[in-house]
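#struct-help
A.M.: can someone run this one for me? Single chain, 296 residues.
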Amino acid sequence: MIKIIAADMDGTLLNTKHTMSERTYRTILKAQDAGYRFMIATGRDYPGALGALGGYPLTCDFITGSGAQIRNEKGELLFTITMDPDRFHEISDRAEKMGGAVRFCAIGTDYVIADPDTLEARLIAESKVFLGTGNEEEIRKMDLFRQMKKRARCVNSIDEILQKEIPIYKIFITAPDGDAAAEMRKEFGKDPSLAAASSFYNNVELTDVRAQKGCAVRSYIQSLGFTADEVMVLGDSLNDLSMFTEGFGAAVAMANADPEIRKAADYITLSNDSDGASYAMELLMDGKLNQLKKTL
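D.P.: on it. Structure tokens below:
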């Protein structure tokens, strides 16, 4: 019997405007009132995840940084895995040779080796992909862009990060296109010490191999006394794949999910713009999850 719901944010709990609907928020509260333990499993860091909730405060567990950090319902940090700083130069060189632009992600701050003008141009390009719409003038006015710009910091070199001993939990690579991103995932995926995933078609997210959503959810729920078959996961992108291959009780893909996620899913719900996460949770609470089909 399902007792825990673990959900991704972007593309899952959040719509294409990267906001959460009133219905989804109320459904989460209803599920918690019904006794389900709810947790968010996101590639965002903790401040970014809280910010994405907007005016909908939630008291729940957070798995952030794609599995690099676990926080309990009180927001207390229970577990963290950072990347090996001895690998930074090598990883960056490999990514850049393949045409990638590299960002080093710490909690609350992203470090980019670039001048301010180059950084802004990169952030605008990434925002267009993230939002799927908008010209430069419109994007500059958006809160999302302002938040991205606020958290990004220019540095002169990787050595500056190393000298300050800044804990990096993720290396975020923007590829020229989807084919280049797929090739990067393939190449970095050969490294047994790294996990290579994506949240968008042209990006690659590298973490320590132990910092993946699936194994983070499993280790945390086991520490709470639950078993894998008592967990339902919801997701859409390739950085959710580890949750879909971990053997949990129910794996629900969004209608907008990557084909690989849909293939690995037990069920497929409606899209994120149709409150698909809310719909799946409502069916779960009504004992009708099996009404969801593998295909839509």
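A.M.: thanks! The mean pLDDT is 92.
D.P.: also worth noting: Residues 123 and 256 are 24 Å apart (CA to CA).
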